[in-house]
Amino acid sequence: TTTTTTTTTTMMTRMKPTTVVRCHAPSRASAAKAKTKATTTNAATSRVVPAAVGGRRRRCAGVARAIATEETFEYQAEVHRLMDLIVNSLYSNKDVFLRELVSNASDACDKLRFTSLSDSSVMAGNEEMRIKIRGDPESKTLTIEDTGIGMSKEDLVSSLGTIARSGTAKFMEMLKSQSDGENLIGKFGVGFYSAFLVADKITVTSKNPSDTATWVWESEINSSSYTVKESEEALTRGTKIVLHLKEGCEEYATGEKLSSLVKTYSEFISFPIDVWAKQNKEKEVEDTASTQALKEAWTKKKIEAEAKGEEFTEPEPKPVMKKEYEQVENWSTANNDKPIWVRSPKDVEQESYNEFFKSTFKEFLDPLANTHFAVEGDIEFRSILFVPGMAPFEQQDMMQKSRAIKLFVRRVFISDEFDESLLPRYLTFIRGVVDSSDLPLNVSREILQESRIVRVIRKRLVRKTFDMLKDIAARDNDDYDTFWDNFGRNLKLGVIEDSDNRKDLADLLRFTTSKSGNEGKLRSLEQYVTDMPEAQKSIYFVAADNRAAAEASPFLEKLKQKGFEVLYLIDPIDEVAMANLATYKDTPIVDASKEALDLGDEDEAEKAKRAELAEEFKTLTTWMKECLGDQVEKVEVSNRLTDTPCVLVTSKFGWSANMERIMKAQAMGDNRAQDYMKGKKTMEINPSSPVIAQLRKQKDADEALAKDNCQLLFDTALLTSGFTVDSPAEFAARVFKLMTAQAITEGEAPPGGAIDPEIV
Questions:
Q1: Alpha carbon distance 474, 135 (integer Å)
Q2: What does the alpha-carbon distance between residue 90 and residue 70 come to, in Å, rounded to a whole number?
Q3: What is the mean pLDDT of the chain?
Q4: Hey, how many other C-beta atoms are within 10 angstroms of the C-beta on 247?
Q5: What average pLDDT score do residues 294-299 get?
Q6: Where are the extended beta strands (E) located within 79-214?
Q7: Could you give the percent of the chain with pLDDT greater than 90?
Q8: Backbone angles phi and psi of 216, in degrees to 5
Q9: Closest CA to 494 of 427, 540, 429, 447
Q10: Of residues 749 and 157, which shows the higher confidence score?
Q11: Structure pTM?
Q12: DSSP state of 586
């Protein structure tokens, strides 16, 4: 047996410094030399040498002394340090080493299958292709064995001896004209070295059908070299990898852990994976207690019969058997059959989809909808998406870190934690599987963020999700109401965050409106626009804490009188979503609590009447502005009130009363932002209100009382408009003062018409 030690040339080449001498001959120096020579010749004819020429001669000598010397060095690398950097930067989870090695074994079986198409002798009478995994806790080793194509000595040196060289990628280059070759899994050559995450020594024994010998490749984690030698163990075909586990990694030698990892990452590999693990084996044993009881009863009967002199013919009872289970170690196939997403949708029953959804994503309700599709062309992937039947209990945590999509690469599970790479944040309630044919196995978060493949996948997933939601919305049942109760807030968040898909999201929004009826039936924006009167030019909404508060809002008085429908925004996120949406099918969306409310087309008579009222009440509005000072921006006659004496409206681009209240409640709110985002308040008065008429009279009769009532009107307008009173004590004092004055005016006489109590 000979031992050959080979060092990775590309990493460990250590060369001595090489001195390279280059002579630089500047053109100016050459010209100076030529000129000096001419001057010296002239000296022979008794001509004087110019001083400038002497200077050039000295500079020329300096150039000659300054001939540059360059030294070239080769980079030096500690291979074990470099390998440690590569492996630990690509893999943050130790568990993935088994996924990588099993994928390599699957590649080897694939290569054997392809090679056998042209050369059947490679099967060597053994057509079985499978993978076996066995741990040995006592020796702290883990063995992964396959019956694939195997490797020759040259293959071991070129594939395992050169870091980041992929044998599968090289094989694919030879098969690039054959579409079947695209079924190979691994394309990146560092997958094998992930074994060093858990092992400090790796031994690879391999036999290729074209080679008569079996070879052993061996390396240790802190070594800069590896050894290759002919093996004393003869393999029929394939590769056996033995990992000598590090301290602290002993769990990877247990069958339970190995079965769990195969189930997690490699369940859908197309070749059977056998794991040596403990199993519960059923066996029958005698139930001694029950048998003894039967025998005692039989014996008693026999004695009684003999005592009576009767013949006893009942046979002796047989032993009572019972089932017991014992744990035995044996080979068991850990991976499943063909994955459901690889099958054609027409071959899959809806019940199969439901069962897959519930078992894969730990749900107990059937999904509201699902879609199964495949994308082919430059980028290939298959996917199944589901809309859950209910929101998860930890929905707030779901918004922070999603496990919505399980990503597979050629049936090998990669991860289900990708933030917003595969679906935007607002669609993280969607559950599904994506199996890509183009991504590498060691896909990382950075690769996902930069990959064109992932951007294409994301775009298609979003489009298919919208198709599912539109399908649910079109159903003639309450499925969409169920969906909206669970995930409506997600779509509102999408309106805020996803400008590209805002139009599709707008069609899916639902609201309680002034036409919802007592049942509170949700209505869409499409229904709103369809039912709009001809005179209505905008979509109106009002924001409040609840439906009752929205219905009682004074801002809606004129809108209701005109028969205009109003959206009730009772979710804190609603107002922000509508501000971002702004329009729906070219119809502006308007906050009924903002200034300059457009109530549709006005004829000339209505415009003239408004102008006349504004002029008539100009003296009062000017006086009220002086009384209220900086509390309001201005006071004007309202066109939106029919009963309420006055309201406070805010500027178009500032916070509404509802938004101001929400922002004040934020624990980490910015007080500086509140100062300039608060909407400037405009007080609108109702010219037909008796309260305003009384104030108008009081202004001339008793100005002090009128000022108190003006401030009281402002405070009550704050409350009815959704604001908070800055000084509740002062507001209460004004109310008590008004009540006291009323009591004094009415006197203490009992009301007329009082009836004496009847004595019974």
A1: 55
A2: 38
A3: 80
A4: 7
A5: 87
A6: 131-136, 141-146, 199-207
A7: 33
A8: -120, 125
A9: 427
A10: 157
A11: 0.69
A12: T
* pLDDT score, position 224: 77
pLDDT top residue among 489 and 519: 489
The conformational region for residue 309 under phi > 0 = left, psi -120 to 50 = alpha, else beta, is left
Q: Which token pair is 631?
A: 């509390």
DSSP string for residues in 254-300: SHHHHHHHHHHHSTT-SS-EEEEEEEEEEEEEE-HHHHHHHHHHHHH
The closest of 70, 57, 81 to 24, measured between CA atoms, is 70
**Quick one: tokens of 428?**
């993280």
- Asked if the model's pLDDT at residue 474 lies above 90, the reply is yes
CB atoms within 10 A of CB 582: 10
Q: Region of 450 please: left (phi>0), alpha (psi -120 to 50) or beta.
A: alpha
The residue with greater pLDDT, 716 or 752, is 716
Mean pLDDT lowest among 55-64, 161-170, 482-491, 708-717: 55-64
Token pair in block for residue 487: 């995930």
**Local structure of residue 678 (DSSP, 8 states):** B
Which whole number is the average pLDDT over 487-499? 93
DSSP string, 163-194: TT--HHHHHHHHTTT-GGGGG-----TTTGGG
Report which DSSP code applies to 545: S
Place of tokens 């068991």: 332
Tokens of 757: 């109590």
Please provide the size of the chain in residues: 760
